[in-house]
Amino acid sequence: MKKSSELRTRALQCLARREYSRAELRARLLQYAGEDSGEISNSAQLEELLDDFMARDWLSDERAAAQGLHTRSTRFGVQRIVHELRLKGIADDLISNAITGLAESEQERACQVWQKKYGIPAVDAKEKARQMRFLQSRGFTLEVIVKVLRQEES
Hints:
Elements: H1 4-17, H2 22-33, H3 40-55, H4 61-72, H5 78-87, H6 92-98, H7 106-117, H8 125-137, H9 142-153
Helix pairs in contact: 1-2, 2-3, 7-9, 8-9
């Protein structure tokens, strides 16, 4: 059984590097808490530690969502950012609060991503499809992609 001070130290080391959501930090610390061996006291100990961190405001899903949005918004579309935040275990209401206003700049950001990657309009349908797939993989909507490619053609 790991001591709670060891878990606390590991958790603080993680949080010193970047913001984590509660679910993310829990998953990260489970390997040290002995969850795989089925020790119930360690799991309870971990939950107690996470509750303490949340109460002290050292751990915040809101801040984790804001940081994830800030670091990814220049390179990715809303769809991809939302997907990644959900994978981090952040609640949908926190995600919708975090992405407020991001949709308005979606076309501008898609244009910047396209410009950095390609810079010149597609010469044939195959190249245009490739550019569209690239922007889709970055999480931009089809509507925005079509607008960006039409804008760049003219």
